[in-house]
Amino acid sequence: MNDTTGRQRFAEAARETRPDLALLCLLIAAEADPEPGEEAIDAAQIELDRLAGLLPALGRPAAPRRWAEALAELLGERCGFHGSPADYRRLESSLLTEVLRRRRGLPILLSVVWMEVARRAGAPVYGVALPGHFVVGFGEPLGGHVLADPFDGGRILSEEEAGLLVAGATGTPIAPAMFSPAEPAEIVLRVLNNIRAWAAARPERSDVQLWAVELSLLLPSHPARLRYERAELLVERGDFVAGAHAMEEYAQVIDALEPTVAETVRRQARAARAMLN
Predict the structure, then answer these.
(1) Closest Cα to residue 119, out of 232, 221, 253, 20?
(2) What's the predicted TM-score (pTM) here?
C-alpha cells in the first residue's frame, strides 16, 4: 500500500457515516511503517476479533460493571495490556499494530483496544476523552455508566477517581461534560496530536510530525492552525516552494479574522521563497 493509496483510504474512512476507529488507527500505523502493508492491517483486525472471542458470554443485557470486569480480566490480567510512564517516550505506544504486539501503549491506544474488543462482543462501550488521560465507559453515558482505565489494566474508576486523574494530569477540576462519548474522528485527532507532540520534541523526527499533521488535515474537522504547522515543517525540511505556498494559503484563510497575523505569514512566505536564491 503506497502513501497515496493509504492516505486516500484514510480520508475516505474518516468521512464515513460511522467511521471504523480500528481501521483509522491501523492506517496511522501503516503511515509510520508502510512495509508490512495490508497484511499487517488484516492481522490486527483478526487479533481484535480473536480477543473478542475470548470474552465469556455474558448474555444481554449484561450490567455495565460485568462488561468492565470481563474486559479487565481478559485484557488486563490474562493478556497483560497496560501502560507505564516509559510508554510515553515511544512512538510505538501510539501505533495500534505495535500496541497489539507489545501489549503496551498510551491510555488512548489501550482504550481503542478495549473499545474495539468490547464492541465486537456486543458491549455498550464508548471512549471518554478526559483531559490528559483517556479512559473507556460502559453502559449509558448519562446514567448507570462504569468507567475503566485500560492504562491501569482496566481498573474500574469512580467519578471521583477520574477527577483525580484529570487533576493530576492538568491541574483542573473535572466537569460533567468531560464524561461525554468521544467520536471516532475526535479520538483519531487526539492520537495524531500525541504523535505530533512526540515528534516535535525530537527535531530529527520532523518527518513523523509532518505526516501526522498531513493525516490530521484529512479529517473532516481539524484546527486551521495545522495548515500553518505543515507550512513551517515544509520550510524547515527544505521544501521552500511548497512551504511558501502553504503559508500563502493559510494567510488567505485567516485574512478576514486576523489580518495582522495573515500579513506576518505572507512575509514568512516571501522569506521562504528567498531561500531559493
Answers:
(1) 20
(2) 0.93
Give dist(CA 85, CA 106) in Å, integer: 9
Tens digit of each residue's pLDDT, the chain (277 residues) = 666 688 999 999 999 999 999 999 999 999 999 887 889 999 999 999 999 999 987 766 778 999 999 999 999 999 999 999 999 999 999 999 999 999 999 999 999 999 999 999 999 999 999 998 999 999 988 777 899 999 999 999 988 888 888 888 888 888 878 889 999 999 999 999 999 999 999 999 999 999 999 999 999 999 989 999 999 999 999 999 999 999 999 999 999 999 999 999 999 999 999 988 6
Query: CA-to-CA distance for 266 and 22, rounded, in angstroms?
Result: 39
**Cα distance between residue 117 and residue 201, in whole Å:** 32
- Say how many CA atoms lie within 13 Å of 232 toward its Cβ: 11
